[in-house]
Write a structure and sequence with these properties.
249 residues, alpha/beta, Rossmann fold, four-stranded parallel β-sheet, three-stranded parallel β-sheet
Length: 249
């Protein structure tokens, strides 16, 4: 089950999982976009599950109904679009609540539905697409920095509870990656500082030892490894995939 599968990192992960032989359930708000992604996957019994992550109760109900027919799921990729840019003092309480619903509560909802099946199979993989802000807060992303840390703590706690059942829980921390989200961050930072977007982009690239932005496919490769059978002794970790940008150990 790949959340946020209609674009960006989620779409790249769905493609990589399908390429490696998985039966993929594509989850996102836009059904037509999901169907387009499904058409481009390697052949298989891939399914589409439209869901609104602003409504955890509706997500729970639709996922439970869907899985009665779709069958067991042994891999869950939690992924959702990041909260809007902005300083933390400018954020409203509703902005925090919305972010927690999308990123933390919905992850908890899906985990509670799927983990019993994973326990039966003695195999499960939960991979969370989070952010390098878990290690090092990113300026101008106050709400995102806050909720990402909460998700990382949730994952670490869960990993210890489910490890005896052959289930792993890990986080991927993407650095600056060529997605629509990165474009939004660049535009917002340019607007806030009165600079050209190309200047902001060059400044961001200069902070990355690899000298470039990452690609969604590079994130997907890491996700596929953590979702596969050879990563069974890796759990509770937060793996930066960021070209060396994160300075913290």
């Amino acid at each position: 089950m790949v959340c946020g599968a209609s674009r960006g990192i989620g779409r790249a992960c769905a493609r990589e999982f399908a390429r490696q032989g998985a039966r993929v359930i594509l989850v996102s708000r836009r059904e037509e976009a999901l169907k387009e992604v499904r058409e481009g996957l390697e052949k298989g019994d891939h399914r589409v599950l439209p869901a609104d992550f602003d409504d955890p109760s509706a997500l729970e109900a639709s996922a439970k109904r869907f899985l009665l027919d779709a069958g067991p799921v042994h891999i869950l990729l939690n992924n959702s679009g990041g909260p809007p840019s902005g300083g933390i003092l400018d954020a409203t309480p509703d902005a925090f609540l919305s972010a927690f619903r999308r990123h933390l509560i919905c992850s908890q909802v899906l985990a509670k539905i799927l983990i019993p099946v994973m326990k039966e199979a003695k195999y499960g993989r939960i991979v969370n697409i989070v952010s390098t802000s878990v290690r090092q807060p990113i300026r101008g992303l106050g709400v995102s920095n806050t909720v990402r840390g909460a998700v990382a703590s949730w994952a670490k706690t869960l990993s210890a509870e489910v490890a005896p059942f052959g289930i792993t829980v890990n986080n991927i921390l993407p650095g600056a990656t060529q997605t629509d989200r990165l474009g939004e961050i660049i535009r917002e930072r340019a607007r806030a500082t009165g600079r050209e977007e190309k200047e902001v982009k060059a400044e961001m690239v200069a902070e990355i030892p690899a000298g470039r932005f990452g690609t969604p496919e590079e994130i997907a490769t890491a996700a596929a490894f953590l979702a596969g059978p050879f990563s069974g002794y890796i759990t509770g970790v937060s793996l930066p995939v960021d070209g060396g940008r994160t300075l913290a150990l």
